Every structure is written in structure tokens, then in C-alpha cells.
Amino acid sequence: MRKKPEPSAVKAVLISIGTELTQGLVRDKHLSFIGQEMAAFGIEIIKALQIPDNKDLILGELTLACEQAGLVILSGGLGPTEDDLTREMVSQVTGKTLVYHQKVFDNIKIRFSGFNIPKSNEKQASCPEGFVFLNNSHGTAPGFYGSLNGVMIFALPGPPRELQPMFLNEVLPILKGEFQERKVCELVFNSYMISESLLQDVFTKTKAFEVTLATRLDDDRIIGTLRGPTIEGLETSFLELQRQFGFMRIQAGNYFIGDRLVDCLSKKALSLSLAESCTGGLISQWITSISGSSRIFWGSVVTYANRAKEDLLGVDALVVEQKGAVSRETAVAMVRGALKLSNSEVAISVTGIAGPDGGTEEKPVGTVWIALSVNGRELSHCFRFNGDRHRVRYKTAVTAMLLCQAMVEERDVQDLNQFS
Predict the structure, then answer these.
(1) Dihedral (C-alpha) 16, 123, 161, 139: value to the nearest 10 degrees?
(2) Which architecture does CATH list for 185-252?
(3) What is the pLDDT of residues 164-192, one digit of tens each?
(4) Which of 75, 78, 145 is nearest to 108 (CA)?
(5) Domain 258-419 has CATH 3.90.950.20
(6) N- or C-end of the chain: fewer Cβ atoms within 10 A?
């Protein structure tokens, strides 16, 4: 029985194919995803590149990759059109004839659910002789893999929603069968309202031995993945990050920001109402994107104009006139108005200046007041968020939901200025 080589002995090249990538029409997300998975497995990607749908370029780069690495991963170019060239180029480089597989085409036809399938889709049922198809459970283009002089070649579809499950469910098991699996533990966490650079700096200063941190940006958070040989080391690093930044900004797991809030409200059978101004219904949109949120969510009143705050929420016109629409008094009046209107136990109000216009010396762009009421307990605070209009609105929504979660779970609300 042959001894499996260590994955660290293998170098990989990742080639993303598609003119839409090189023209900047589509953002290539594959390096971030595959790179982290390969790093966890112990395989180093020595080169990653994007090339258009050009025969000569694909042929040249694929030939060079097979000389430089023991593993080549291609993405894209497996569709039914004339400019989908991956299977033809792999056939040419390996010297293997393309072979048509009727059973594979029959499976492709199933995905068309009774509609007439274009003849052009037949090419998706071909792969180089001796290569093996990879199942695509999210699209019509199956992947395939094989080898050339000891070099493993994987061809995967371009869309991330097709590539990612294929990589996890098909490619990784094959690699684990070829190489010794390195023991790597993982701990995933959400990081809120912390810059990627600051998160990395603090981690570097406090990390446990042999623990690494990989990060992935999402609209509402940074998703961090700690990796190392022992779960104890990961937990040590995670708890130190949580101690440095606080519970609200570092939370274990990978979930959309609204999931935890909806979950804790559901467990306590509390209903939520919203009064939104500068966010324009963004918090409501995030809440209602979660299945089952109707159990806890009364609704949202988007009172953008001052008159709407007065007419719909009962905010006193004198309060708005004397203190301003962006003030503690207006935010508190808004949250009380939402409670009265909905008869809910929990309410959030937000009012602020998202920009780029509307700021003053006293209240610059990014000034936001957030008020909350949870079972009669009230909290209100002024924040100064930086960034453009989009970022100010997102930061407002994230902060409001985190504060609400903390109050519902009866946790200490730490220095609120850390969110600015």
C-alpha cells in the first residue's frame, strides 16, 4: 500500500476563465474561497490568474501550469456556447480525445424540467477520455477531473453557487483520498464594526501558538476563520479577541446579523417594531429576509420626513423644531411612538444624517441617534459613523441590531463609542 504524500508537498495553480472577468464585468470570488480551503488542507496556491475566453491564452497558461504545479484547478468555460473552451483546451493539452456520455446528457436534460433542451448543451456531456465527471447539483454544467503525468487537473463551473458546493462535496473528498489529511481545527466567528486591519493587528499580538486567521468581508460583517492544530488554541485566541473587542462585536458562528436577534426575541416571545429614518427601511428588510421573522416582527414605520415623524409616530413638532430631527429627544419620541402604535415589547428607532449632504459643524455627516426600548428599559446614544452614504446606513443598521440583541439578552452594554 503506497504511502500518501503530504499535501504540503503539492503546489497548486488556480485559473479562472472568462472574458467577463478580465473586462471587470464580474468579480472573481474563487481565489478567496478555494484559497482558504486549500490553506486549511495544507496545499499552497503558488499562482492564481484570470484569462479571457481565448484559445491561445488558455492553452498557454494551462500548459505552463501543468509544468509548474502538481494540481491545476480551472473554473469557468464549461457552458454550452462557442466561447466555452475549457473542455477543448484540457483535451488538447492532455492529448485525450473528447468523449460524449449519453447518461450525463440525460441527467442534464432532467434539470430542464420538461422544457426543450438546446442542442448546444450536448457539449456539456463531453470530457477528455479517461477523465471523470463531477456532479453539479446547482447547474447544468458538470465538472470533470483527471491527470496528466502525475498532475491532477480539475475543471469546475464558473458561477460560485455551482463551484462552491462542487468543490466541497466532490473535489475535497478526492484530494483527501490522494493525500494525507492534515489535522486542522477550525473556529468561525462574526466580527462587527471592526476594520479588517485592526482585527488582524489585535489577533497578531494576542494569537495562540500556531493559530492562523483568515477573513472574508460581507456587507454586514467580517467572517473570521481561526485554524490550528488544537481546538484549545483556537478558543484561547477567540476569547482574547472577544475580551479585546467585546461580546457584541465578536460572536462565535457564521450567521446573518438578524438571525441571532430574531432567535433571541423568539425564545423570549417578544415582538419587535421599528421606526426608521436615515436607514429607510434597511433594518426591516434585513429582519424580513429571515424565514420565521413574522413570529416576532410587528413591522416598521419609515418616517423619513419630519411631518411623517409627527403624524405617524406622534413626535411633537416643537421637539423637532427646537432639538432637530437628529437628536436624542426625537429618537426617544420615535421609539415611544413605535411602541404605542404596535403595542410591542421591543422597539428600535434610528434618525441621522447619512450624507453626502445635510451635515453641519455641530452635526456632521454620519451623526446618528439610536434609541431602544426593551420591556420598559430605554437606551439612547449618539454615534458618529464614517464612510459614504451606503456605509453610514449599514453601520447604523448593524449597530442598532447588535444593541437590541445585547439588551434582550440582558448583557452589559459596553462603551458605545467603540462602534463609531
Answers:
(1) 180
(2) 2-Layer Sandwich (3.30)
(3) 999 999 999 999 888 876 667 889 999 99
(4) 78
(5) yes
(6) N
